[in-house]
Amino acid sequence: MSETETSAIDSKIEETNKASQPKGDVIGFITNSAIITAIIIGYYGISSLVLYSCKLAQSNILPTDEKCFPYTDSELKIDNTNINI
Questions:
Q1: Residue 17: inside a domain
Q2: Phi, psi (rounded to 5 degrees) for 23
Q3: What domain range includes position 40?
Q4: Own/partner pairs, 49-57, CB within 8 angstroms, 24+ separation
């Protein structure tokens, strides 16, 4: 009779030990955290690039006139522009 009682207790102990080792949950958490971190870094990277591009386009540094410096020898005078971001 004691063997059946210990086997039932042993099986319960094994079940609780298996349930208390959440290896899959830890790996899933690390994977999800890495994905979310990459998405956040990508979001801020793309938005910074868009902001920089808009500021560059508004500052009149990009060549837009075919009759000016990069295309001919006459130089273009660039005025200072205050940009409020």
A1: no
A2: -65, -40
A3: 22-85
A4: 51/85, 55/83, 55/85
Helix, strand or coil, per DSSP, at residue 6: helix
- 63 token code pair: 């060549």
Tokens 């410096």 -> residue: 69
Joined tokens for residue 59: 């500052």
Q: Is residue 69 part of a domain?
A: yes
Q: What is the mean pLDDT of each run of 10 residues along the chain (85 residues)?
A: 66 70 78 97 98 87 73 72 74
Backbone angles phi, psi at 50, to 5 degrees: -65, -45
In a domain, 81, yes or no: yes
pLDDT for the residue numbered 57: 84
